[in-house]
Amino acid sequence: MEEHKVITDDGRVLWAAELGRSEPGRGEPLVLCHGGPGLWDMFDGVAELLAARVRVIRWDQRGGGRSERGGPYTVARTLADLDAIRVHFGLSQMALLGHSWGADVALHYALEHPDRVSSLIYVAGTGLGQDWRDEYRRNRAERLGAERPGAELGAEPPDGEPGGKVGRAAAIRQWTADFADPSTARRHAEDLATPWFGVNEEANAALNAESHAWDEQDLVARCRELAVPTLIVDGAADVRPRWAVDSLAEALPDVARVVLPSAGHVPWVESPGSFGWAVLAHLAR
């Protein structure tokens, strides 16, 4: 893995890395957009899996992980930062894979710049509306039970500072709900939290607030015009209800949808073979 420092047009430094290499017939490079907001790239396993077949580019979004702290934290700025990644690596077009919040980032970038996106992979996203949140909280509370943390990830953990030991412990407790198999959930959550860079609470709050104001009908109309080939990947056991993505799947004109029955919110961890096959098959179209 070759690491890079990417300088944005407003002078912030973003961490990025590339794996694999482009060869004739392998398609456009694949840029991975991580979840959050305010987190960092956790794509270790899937990046290595996919890099055997395609050039893979990873990056930490502004203010998260190995990227420089400091705003502004807006959706427009996040999309501009993603375009800075594209320019830095000399890409006229790129395939995008986004997970959770990163699925929103990838989708909105494709809506703004469809000519720069050859393919879109929308993993464990939450769709175009906001009415999924109450069911998500109920599902999460039921799955966590006694392990339920005292705050949502993205709100300051109780009795500690974000980025400290208690912040990591609270995140691990919450992330156990994101896996289908309770016997391995904690180990998987600990793996995601290692290394631990801390949650950027400012970025999380600002970007979540902005996304809550998105107009579902406007997004549906824009998605109907998006000609980019899209793959939606769901884990059947995701605590975020999968019906939330239905309006997106119905709106997109060129879309396929894969549901992995043994996976939760992080499907490449629990179903790596099926996940990798689905992604590579889509990229080979």
TrEMBL record:
Q: Which UniProt keywords apply?
A: Aminopeptidase, Hydrolase, Protease
Enumerate the GO terms in the molecular function aspect: aminopeptidase activity
Q: Does the keyword Hydrolase apply?
A: yes
Q: Where is this region: Disordered?
A: 143-165
Q: Which InterPro entries match?
A: AB_hydrolase_1 (IPR000073), AB_hydrolase_fold (IPR029058), AB_hydrolase_sf (IPR050266), Peptidase_S33 (IPR002410)
What EC number(s) has UniProt assigned to this enzyme?
3.4.11.5
Domain of life, per lineage:
Bacteria
Record-level GO cellular component terms = membrane
Recite the lineage of the species: Bacteria, Bacillati, Actinomycetota, Actinomycetes, Pseudonocardiales
Its name, as the record gives it, is Proline iminopeptidase
| Domain AB hydrolase-1 residues, every copy | 29-267
In terms of Gene3D superfamilies, this protein maps to: alpha/beta hydrolase
Q: Which GO terms describe its biological process?
A: proteolysis
Name of a matching Pfam family: Abhydrolase_1
Q: What family does the database annotate?
A: Belongs to the peptidase S33 family.
Task: Tell me the PANTHER family matching this sequence.
Answer: HYDROLASE ALPHA_BETA HYDROLASE FOLD FAMILY, MONOACYLGLYCEROL LIPASE
Q: What class of enzyme is it?
A: hydrolase
